[in-house]
Amino acid sequence: MNNVLLINASPNGLVSHANQLALELVDTLRQRHPRLELVERDLGTHPLPPLGMDYARGLATTTPFDAAEFEISETLIRELERCDILLIATPMHNFTLPAALKLWVDYVLRIHRTFSSGPEGKTGLLSNRAVYVLVGSGGFHQGEKARQPDFLTPYLRQVLGTLGLLDPHFTYLQGLVFGEEAVKAAIQDSRARLALEPLFNPLICA
């Protein structure tokens, strides 16, 4: 294990609870793999540029295309290809992905590059690897307290599967708007759940 890619989609940047928990996971991995390389892609602090007409037209051709967005796409895809573990720390916005993460998806989910399409549907072209998605939300969308739908999980699971990443693990930090004690409880619960994963056990739950 040599490389972890951390995608932080929160507008709160480094102080995002999901991102902080993801960094704890990286520290845990480094206890076993001291030379582990971390590549961080902070989509909130350094947002990606929107995709334009040239990129859209280029996707419809089979010849090389020199739109600036293709260079960005290649950089993001290579980051994915190099990583042994993908960590995604994201909030839930309006029941689904934040715009920053959706734009990242549109850059990396690219026909003939990260997936192929045929009579049987789409097939991922990336090799499978460990994927952990940490989702922060102000309210509840999982469990007995759920009062809103969750379109993020099925959509992102489909996206990752289309890339060839077939077994993503989702962890939810819920109820984050209900005060400091609720935040502590959400983080503690997520730590305990992640500690059950062989990759991160033993995870300190202090």
What multimeric state do the chains show? single chain
CATH homologous superfamily designation:
Flavodoxin domain
**What's the total helix number?**
6
The rounded Rg comes to 18 Å
Subunit structure: Homodimer.
Keywords: Flavoprotein, FMN, NAD, Oxidoreductase
Family: Belongs to the azoreductase type 1 family.
Organism: Pseudomonas brenneri
Outline the secondary-structure elements.
Layout: E1 3-8, H1 17-32, E2 37-42, H2 53-59, H3 68-82, E3 85-91, H4 99-108, E4 115-118, E5 121-124, E6 130-136, H5 152-163, E7 169-173, H6 180-195
Parallel strand pairs: 1-2, 1-3, 3-6, 6-7
Antiparallel strand pairs: 4-5
Question: Which key phrases capture this entry?
Answer:
single chain; 206 residues; alpha/beta; Rossmann fold; five-stranded parallel sheet; two-stranded antiparallel sheet; globular
How would you describe this structure to a colleague?
There is one protein chain. By secondary structure, the protein is an alpha/beta fold. The chain has one domain (3-195): Flavodoxin domain (Rossmann fold). 37% of the residues lie in helices and 19% in strands. The chain is built from six helices and seven strands. It has helices at 17-32, 53-59, 68-82, 99-108, 152-163, 180-195, and strands spanning 3-8, 37-42, 85-91, 115-118, 121-124, 130-136, 169-173. The strands form two sheets. The protein has a five-stranded parallel β-sheet with strand order 2-1-3-6-7, with helices on both faces. It has a two-stranded antiparallel sheet with strand order 4-5. Strand 1 (3-8), helix 1 and strand 2 form a beta-alpha-beta unit. The longest helix is centred in the first third of the chain and has 16 residues, at 17-32. The two termini are 26 Å apart.
